[in-house]
Amino acid sequence: MSSNPTTRLVPVERLAAITSLIAEGAVFEGNFHTAVDQGIKIDGTLTGNVTFQTGGTLHVGATGVVENTRLEADYIFIEGKVVGAVIARKALEIAGSATLLGDASYDELIDIHPRARVRGKIEYRGDIDARPT
Amino acid sequence: MTAVTQSIPDSETLRRAALAASWRRSQGVARRRLWWRWTLWLLPRVLVPLGAVAALAWAAMRWTQPAPAPEPAHLGRPRTIERPPAADARNAVRPEPAPAAGSAPAIATAPPSPSASTTILLRLDLAPTGSATPPINPPGDKPR
């Protein structure tokens, strides 16, 4: 799938297992919700929430725009623009081409590129005093 | 009439193809946007100061450059006295008429001076056309 050998927090296998796609130029208004461990990639415009009850991989492509949203999934990889709250239960990765206007929280891992544009709070939801195992 | 049958791709093939195309487009856009962000960040921090330093260095080099050596005095003087160009044929310097045989020259040759050309021009301007040129400084005349 990707020839980029860069190590990602969001595993390439998860990104390759994406099952739904909002293509570039398409506009989707409404909420996307599933209880199955699936994945969605957004290259177009989405206005609404995306929620995975369990598991889930959410990839906002470089051309993707998500507005007025609440994104919740295990793995979230943002390359485009997101306006709203982001909750990553496992890993959150914000690329250098990304713009995030809103709060982000994560449970395990986070990676923010130095050139990423983030305006909002970043919150670690895990045990802040937990000893490394 | 022959029906052209084409195999319809199954969902998995379609998904893979769509994802691959999406990856290609996304990578290009992301790379361009990231490059532009780095450029915007680098421009005021590195390139502008570099340009300012280069300009200052250039100005300092010009300022500390030794002045050109002055020319020797004999080279600074003009070698010839230039005459003003003749505006038309009336102002052109005409050759002196040849003196008549057995008579003294009517005009004493004035010593060469920087104003000689001016004198000649004035004399030519005031002299009527075709008449004999009156002497300016007759030999016996004394300055008043």
Q: How would you characterize this protein structure?
A:
The complex is a heterodimer of chains A (133) and B (144). Chain A has one helix at 12-16, and strands at residues 20-22, 27-29, 32-34, 39-42, 45-47, 50-52, 57-60, 65-78, 81-94, 99-101, 104-106, 109-112, 117-119, 122-124. Chain A has 133 residues and is mostly beta strands. Chain A has a domain at 27-119. The model of chain A has no long low-confidence stretch (mean pLDDT 92). Chain B is mostly helical. Chain B is 48% helix and 0% strand. Chain B is built from three helices and no strands. The longest helix of chain B has 54 residues, at 11-64. Chain A binds chain B through residues 1-2, 4, 16, 18-19, 21, 23-24, 41, 43, 61-63, 79, 95-97, 113, 115, 117, and chain B through 15, 18-20, 22-23, 25-27, 29-31, 33-34, 37-38, 41.
What quaternary form is this? heterodimer
- Class derived from helix and strand content of chain B: mainly alpha
Mean pLDDT of chain A: 92
Number of DSSP strands of chain B?
0
Radius of gyration of chain A, in Å, reads 14 Å
Averaging pLDDT over every residue of chain B, what do you get?
71
| H-E order of chain A | HEEEEEEEEEEEEEE
- First CA to last CA of chain A: what distance? 33 Å
Specify the overall morphology of chain B.
Answer: elongated
Q: Please bin the fraction of helical residues of chain A.
A: under 10%
Tally of individual helices of chain A: 1
Number of helices of chain B: 3
Low-confidence regions of chain B? none
Strand content of chain A: over 45%
Helix content of chain B: 40-55%
Largest sheet of chain A: 14 strands, parallel
- SSE order of chain B, one letter for each helix or strand: HHH
**Beta-strand proportion of chain B:** under 5%
Q: Give the total of beta strands of chain A.
A: 14
Report the largest inter-chain contact: A-B, 21 and 17 residues
